[in-house]
Amino acid sequence: MADNPGFTVIDGGRAADVDEVEGTTRAQRAEASGRPVAIDRAERAAYLGVSAAERAKALASLEAPDFTLPDLDGRLHSLSEQRGKKVLLVAYASW
Amino acid sequence: MYEELRGLGFTVITVAVDKSADDARPWIETAKPTHPSLVDTAHVLADLYNLVNVPTILWIDERGRIVRPNDVAFGTDTFKQITGLSAASHLAALRAWVRGEAPALPEARIRALQSLPTDDDQRARAEFGLGEWLWNQGRTEAAARHFAKAGELAPHDFTIRRGTMPMRGIDPMGPQFREMLGSWVKAGNPYYRPLAE
């Protein structure tokens, strides 16, 4: 194994390659600030999530959280583009 | 229903909570929808809206406000015998709201009906997120460990427990799903949680 095999931190859905010290430091800092952290030292990766308090506050405001997701052709669409219309949001799955 | 109401300042956005666009492709290509039909492999929507199962529907008004929180509704009666839920009552309520014949729920009622995420829900979503990243790297065994941990943290979250089955080589309609569902229901827990109104 190389001296510095690296570490991946996934934050806000984006993966960044950093060294192990930097990666574990970021994970610890996120955890200390109340964020949920999933870490796998063997796989050298950590995922920094969003706290229940932050998500609950946003939902309780009743302001619909904006999102941007791709269609089948990879074209991105946001909820906010539909402002001015009533929206039925439907989550489903093939499973 | 969309074609009927689209002229009234209304749209539908569908979001497939699936491991890949190809899983959702046959559904979308069969329906040929003209409204946005999106794919959410990373559970972005689940994280933002505290989705724990599908189908889940929400109503959002012209100002971008949630006026009907997470609810269970089907577009057709295909699964009525299994779910006990008929499509008609939701469609009638939706029509009345879109046509302006009936208001949506009052804010206090919306808040009372909302289900907000707990720390364990968000820990489960972080475990899912790490698992999903590992799975996309081809590190499927490590991914499966994090999916399992996520399921233990949030046993009511079937976007995780059932939704990751195809990523773990498990048939999401097969015996392992039926066993999971059976013990969940036997313990007195509902699989679908439609709103009381």
Please give the structural blueprint.
The complex is a heterodimer of chains A (95) and B (197).
Chain A: E1 7-11, E2 14-18, H1 20-32, E3 37-40, E4 45-48, H2 52-60, E5 68-70, E6 76-78, E7 86-92
Parallel strand pairs in A: 1-4
Antiparallel strand pairs in A: 1-2, 3-4, 5-6
Chain B: H1 2-5, E1 10-16, H2 21-31, E2 37-39, H3 44-49, E3 56-60, E4 66-71, H4 80-83, H5 87-98, H6 107-113, H7 119-136, H8 140-153, H9 158-161, H10 175-186
Helix pairs in contact in B: 7-8
Q: Give the number of helices of chain B.
A: 10
List low-pLDDT spans of chain A.
Answer: none
* Number of beta-strand segments of chain B: 4
And the CATH topology of the largest domain in chain B? Glutaredoxin
How far the N terminus sits from the C terminus of chain A, by CA atoms, comes to 40 Å
User: What is the chain-wise order of helices and strands of chain B?
Assistant: HEHEHEEHHHHHHH
Mean pLDDT over the full residue set of chain B: 94
Secondary structure: helix percent of chain A: 10-25%
The largest β sheet of chain B comes out as:
2 strands, parallel
Structural class label of chain A: alpha+beta
The top level CATH class name of the largest domain in chain B: Alpha Beta
Query: What does the radius of gyration of chain B come to?
Result: 18 Å
Describe the structure.
The complex is a heterodimer of chains A (95) and B (197). Chain A has 95 residues and is an alpha+beta fold. Chain A has a domain at 7-52. Helices cover 23% and strands 33% of the residues of chain A. Chain B has 197 residues and is mainly α. Chain B folds into two domains: 2-113, Glutaredoxin; 119-186. Chain B has helices at residues 2-5, 21-31, 44-49, 80-83, 87-98, 107-113, 119-136, 140-153, 158-161, 175-186, and strands at residues 10-16, 37-39, 56-60, 66-71. In chain B, the strands form two sheets. In chain B, strands 1-2 form a two-stranded parallel ribbon. In chain B, strands 3-4 form a two-stranded antiparallel sheet. Chain B starts with a helix and ends in an 11-residue tail after the last helix. Classes of the chains: A alpha+beta (95), B mainly alpha (197). Strand 7 of chain A pairs parallel with strand 1 of chain B.
